[in-house]
UniProtKB/TrEMBL annotation:
Record InterPro entries: Ferritin-like, Ferritin-like_SF, Rr_diiron-bd_dom
Residue stretches making up the Rubrerythrin diiron-binding domain: 8-146
Taxonomic classification: Bacteria, Pseudomonadati, Thermodesulfobacteriota, Desulfobacteria, Desulfobacterales
MF terms (GO), sorted A to Z: metal ion binding; oxidoreductase activity
CDD domains: Ferritin_like_AB
Name of the protein this chain belongs to: Rubrerythrin
Domain of life: Bacteria
Amino acid sequence: MNKSNTLNILKNAFLMERQGKNLYEIARDKAEDESVKTFFQSLADDEQDHMDILEKQFKSYMSSGKFAAGGYDNDGGTEPAQDILSTAVKANINAASFEATAITAAIGFEQNAVKLYALRSEGAEDPEEKKLYKWLSLWEKTHLQQLISIQESFMDRIWEDNSFWPM
């Protein structure tokens, strides 16, 4: 792949991470419950970490034409989700709140990130680029699974609260 295209992918990935971080910070600031604030802050922190990594790789690629080796061999993103935090978040987010809307929007961000990173991992020729994008894809899948789980709990609560379940 040519240098310009690789740099554009890195720029787009960085922008996507920044947008996700901004969304999570706004949701954190609007949240009233501490467990919900903590959840959104955790997601924002992860996105900042990803931005830092992408910036490092952008600089490396600009200067050397290669991705820096960088510890992306582990599957850190596949660590089990924080069940206690997720349970508290599920219980403390109102399905009609801004936080619930942010979760829905974040699902779209995370789906796009998973798709972009998985495609780049498959198409990358540079082994370090391949590792980086696979690692990022796994992290974003973890976020996506957490968010979908929380959203599904909203649906269940709405159905139960409104007696929509079949008799």
